[in-house]
Amino acid sequence: MPQHPGISPPRPPPYRGAEPSHVRDTKPCGETSPSPSPTGLRFMTPWTRSLLVLAGLMGAAGVASAAAAAHLGGVANLETAAHFLLFHAAALVGLCALSLLLGRGRVVLQLGASAIALGALLFSGDLALRALMDVKLLGGSAPFGGSLMILGWLTVGASALVARRA
Asked: 9 partner at 20 to 30 Å CA-CA among 25, 54, 65, 161?
């Protein structure tokens, strides 16, 4: 059937179900690459799994530290350790979830998350040992752990400068 000169041809219906690979793999900038999964999410790498396991352990240790601080009384260092563990455990879960959405910038984000996790463990571990056993973890663990957390958060922020969606 001939088209009228002023009327454009009808658009094809939207894709239902499986889309052809040339449609699914097209990125906004025009580059193509295979999609990591049907949902567009990356599969969890061992690095991400390790960070999530660590986040779970940090959360559990944070709850246990908070409970111990509540029952012992007068142990401000233990309360501080509990807060740092709990806040950073939740942040790690969020950072791991975000890393599943990223293609470029994912490694930088995971490096920052790893620095945050190690820093929180050193900082909180030192404070908890001082409060419970009156001993230091290692010389300068708390200040080094705090500095590592700051560096980790700066690295997470820097990952936004290079991040691209998967």
From this structure: 25
E strand or H helix that includes residue 66 = helix 46-72
Q: How many CB atoms lie within 10 A of CB 55?
A: 24
Residue 102: CA count within 13 A, CB half-sphere: 22
Query: Is pLDDT of 30 > 50?
Result: no
Task: Give the 3-state secondary structure percentages of the chain, helix then strand then coil, rounded to 5.
Answer: 65, 0, 35
Query: 120 phi and psi, to 5 degrees?
Result: -65, -40
SS3 45: coil
Its pTM stands at 0.74
Query: Helix or strand or coil: residue 32?
Result: strand
| DSSP-derived 3-state class of residue 102 | strand
Q: How far apart are CA 53 and CA 126, in angstroms?
A: 21
Confidence of residue 10 (pLDDT cuts 50, 70, 90): low
Q: Which helix (H) or strand (E) segment is 97 a member of?
A: helix 76-101
